[in-house]
Specification:
heterodimer; A: mainly alpha; 0% strand; B: alpha+beta; Ubiquitin-like (UB roll); Fumarate Reductase Iron-sulfur Protein, Chain B, domain 2; five-stranded mixed β-sheet; binds FE2/S2 (inorganic) cluster
């Protein structure tokens, strides 16, 4: 067997093993977690005024092919995350064909038991979010543009969140994201084997803090728009 | 005290089962849970009924033979305790208890509360051993083992293979068991020569037995009568990843 074929075979074997799929979940989860942090830092520039936010948006758009490469990479990451999750879920359901008549939980958290619910909800939210602020299909009046032809991110955000049902969807979705991250962030360390009694308590604290900051930071924007602070 | 039991009764692997209600009116608080079932069984036999089948052997909490689910918790509500070491003083008069067998595709029910756990044996046969020349015993102190490693290996080796981790896991995953068995040998010098092969083969066997995959819920750790920690699952991941990446052949 050639070296390339052997490597390919080994990659397949890694993916087929439950442990390999979990590693894929963790690594793609880590990439998406970093993206969510970056995305929030971008969003928060709304508090620095329209010029700052629009200039940031223009800078991203002017990346051109690189922007599409990043989008493609993120799409691939999401696809791998979902595929591994779906296959593991299927395998896990098959592993317990008969359930318990009485079921109690000693320490399993609500978030850890509902990843399979929060995950698809977030996938739905991402699609809605893209149709809302990226393509403008779900934005009343469509996307607004600045005088120099760039997207007027600031005006779109104010327009989008002024419609309160949209704001409610975003706020609820961020709470779902909070649940997903509260279990996912520390899990991605465990799933690549990073669990050490000296560091695990800090990893747990980091996961909680990151979750709270991301949820609060993102929710603050629709709230600020509805409250008339950002307009 | 009076205890009301709802017990899963199933004639054999191929028959459907159902919950049946029993009452034990005169339970002594010093009885172990299994002794209470013995009393129930004696009465069932006297009445010409089929006694409740459950697995047990040492009744000292060390062999791993016993175990069933009490009100949704494997080995019952007392932490770090096998059901044979669980005493009736932890329950109160009039308690209603639901007894069910371990539920997993890989653990088919043999009868009532007894399941077939030979899937665990096959995971061990796949790699949970070290190869040593037989013959004269090696000199006890020939291989130095640091105290910390010896302690960690002993913690992992405490696993009695009862299967409570699988029973507690919503995914019926055997990763706590397999992680403990891999860790116990990976921590010791004697376990090093076969370390990479072991991780790959035991994980492969675990999948072949149709156990589920861990979702880091950590319910296994909470019910384990021997307090095996999910840190051992992480060690299995480390060994599996490094073996997948670094192994030269195969
Ligand atoms: S009978 Fe041996 S551990 Fe319970």
């Amino acid at each position: 067997m050639s070296a390339a074929a052997a490597t390919w075979e080994r990659t397949i074997r890694f993916w087929e093993a439950s442990v390999g799929k979990k590693v894929v979940m963790a690594v793609t989860g880590a990439i998406l977690f970093l993206f969510v942090i970056g995305h929030m830092l971008g969003n928060l520039q709304i508090y620095l005024g329209p010029e700052q936010l629009n200039a940031y948006g223009a800078k991203l758009h002017d990346l051109g092919p690189l922007l599409w490469a990043i989008r493609g990479f993120l799409l691939l990451t999401v696809a791998l995350h979902i595929t591994a999750a779906a296959q593991l879920w299927w395998m896990n359901r098959a592993a317990r064909p008969t359930g318990y008549i009485r079921q109690s939980w000693v320490q399993a958290s609500f978030a850890s038991r509902t990843m399979i619910v929060s995950g698809p909800l977030l996938a739905g939210f991402i699609i809605y979010h893209l149709l809302h602020f990226t393509t403008g299909d779900f934005l009343s009046g469509g996307l607004a543009y600045t005088a120099d032809g760039h997207i007027d991110v600031y005006a779109n955000v104010v327009n989008g969140f002024s419609y309160w049902p949209a704001s409610v969807v975003y706020i609820l979705s961020m709470i779902v994201l909070g649940y997903h991250l509260s279990h996912g962030v520390w899990s991605m360390f465990q799933s690549v084997g990073l669990n050490h009694p000296r560091y695990m308590p800090w990893i747990r604290r980091f996961a909680t803090a990151a979750t709270v900051i991301i949820v609060a930071g993102n929710i603050s924007i629709p709230v600020a728009v509805l409250a008339g602070i950002v307009r | 005290m009076r205890i009301i039991l709802h017990i899963w009764r199933q004639k054999d692997a191929n028959s459907p089962g159902k919950m049946v209600r029993y009452e034990v009116p005169d339970v002594n608080e010093h009885m172990s849970f299994l002794e209470m079932l013995d009393v129930l069984n004696e009465r069932l036999i006297e009445q010409g009924e089929d006694p409740v089948t459950f697995d047990h052997d040492c009744r000292e909490g060390i062999c791993g033979a016993c175990g069933f689910v009490i009100n949704g918790i494997p080995h019952g509500p007392q932490p770090s305790t096998t059901v044979c070491q669980l005493h009736m003083r932890h329950f109160k008069d009039g308690d209603e208890l639901y007894l069910e067998p371990w539920r997993a595709k890989a653990f088919p029910v043999i009868k009532d509360l007894m399941v077939d756990r030979s899937a665990f044996d096959r995971i061990i046969s796949a790699g949970g051993f070290i190869s040593v020349p037989t013959g004269s015993a090696p000199d006890g102190n020939a291989i130095p083992v640091p105290k910390e490693k010896a302690d960690l290996a002993m913690d992992a080796a405490q696993c009695i293979g009862c299967g409570a981790c699988v029973a507690a896991c919503p995914n019926a995953s055997a990763m706590l068991f397999t992680g403990a068995k891999i860790s116990h040998l990976a921590l010791l010098p004697q376990g090093q020569p076969e370390r990479r092969d072991r991780a790959l083969k035991m994980v492969a066997q675990m999948n072949a037995e149709a156990f589920g995959a861990c979702t880091n819920i950590a319910e296994c750790e909470a019910v384990c009568p021997k307090d095996i920690k999910i840190e051992n699952i992480a060690r299995m991941f480390r060994d599996f990843i490094s073996a997948s990446v670094l192994k030269r052949a195969g």
